[in-house]
Automatic annotation (TrEMBL):
The keyword Hydrolase applies. This is Protein artemis. The gene is Dclre1c. It comes from Rostratula benghalensis (greater painted-snipe). Its main location: nucleus. GO terms for biological process: DNA recombination; double-strand break repair via nonhomologous end joining; interstrand cross-link repair; telomere maintenance. Gene3D superfamilies: Ribonuclease Z/Hydroxyacylglutathione hydrolase-like.
C-alpha cells in the first residue's frame, strides 16, 4: 500500500547541519529528534512545527538523545556556560601574553558558537589545526586561525591529554619568545553535568 509522507527537516541546534525529522502522513505526525539543543522558546519560533496559530498534533516523539536521563536533570543554558567560560578565559589571558587557554573539545564540530563569542568578546582568534572544515561556515573564519601565536587554542592531537600533562599544547607549543607558557585546559562538555548530584 502506498502512502504519501511529507518529511520536514528542522534545525536541531546540536552542531552545524544537525536536524530533527518531522514525518507527516495519513496515519499521523511523528517527530524524530536525534541529539538536539534548543533554548527555551526556540521551538515556539519554528514555523514548520505549527499549523496556523497552533502547534501541529504530534502523535509520537522519538527522543534519541544522549541526555535523556534523570541524572542530567539540569543542564545550564549555552548563555550560562558561555558566560562562565568567558570570565575564566578573560581573567587568565589578562595575566600575561604567556597565559594560554586550551579548549579541549572532543568533537570536531559543535563549538563554533564558543569560538565566535570568545573571539568577539576578547579580540583573540582561536587556533585550530586546519580551516578546511570551516570553509562552508564563513561566519566563523574571521574568528579562527592556524597561527599558533594566540592565547586561545582549540587545536587537536590524537593524544591531547598527554600533551597537556607535559605543559604543551596539542600543536606542540611550550613557550613563546623563550618564555614558558602557562596553560589551563577547559573541557566544554555536557557530560560533566551528569556526574553532579545537583
Amino acid at each position: 500500500q502506498k502512502e504519501d509522507v511529507e518529511v520536514t527537516l528542522l534545525p536541531a541546534g546540536h552542531c552545524p547541519g544537525s536536524v530533527m525529522f518531522l514525518f507527516e502522513g495519513g496515519n499521523g505526525t511523528v517527530l524524530y529528534t536525534g541529539d538536539f539543543r534548543l533554548a527555551k522558546g526556540e521551538a515556539a519560533r519554528m514555523e514548520l512545527l505549527h499549523s496556523g496559530t497552533r502547534v501541529k498534533d504530534i502523535q509520537s516523539v522519538y527522543l534519541d538523545t544522549t541526555f535523556c536521563d534523570p541524572k542530567f536533570y539540569h543542564i545550564p543554558s549555552r548563555e550560562e556556560c558561555l558566560h562562565g567560560i568567558l570570565e575564566l578565559v578573560r581573567s587568565w589571558t589578562l595575566l600575561s601574553p604567556y597565559h594560554v587557554v586550551w579548549l579541549n573539545c572532543k568533537a570536531a564540530y559543535g563549538y563554533e558558537y564558543l569560538f565566535i563569542n570568545l573571539s568577539e568578546e576578547l579580540g583573540i582568534k582561536v587556533h585550530v589545526n586546519k580551516l578546511d572544515m570551516f570553509r562552508n561556515m564563513p561566519e566563523i573564519l574571521y574568528h579562527v586561525t592556524t597561527d599558533r601565536h594566540t592565547q586561545i587554542h582549540a587545536c587537536r592531537h590524537p593524544r591531547d591529554d598527554d600533551c597537556f600533562r607535559g605543559n604543551r599544547l596539542p600543536c606542540g607549543m611550550t613557550c613563546q619568545k623563550g618564555t614558558p607558557l602557562r596553560i589551563i585546559s577547559i573541557k566544554p562538555s555536557t557530560m560533566w553535568f551528569g556526574e553532579r548530584i545537583k
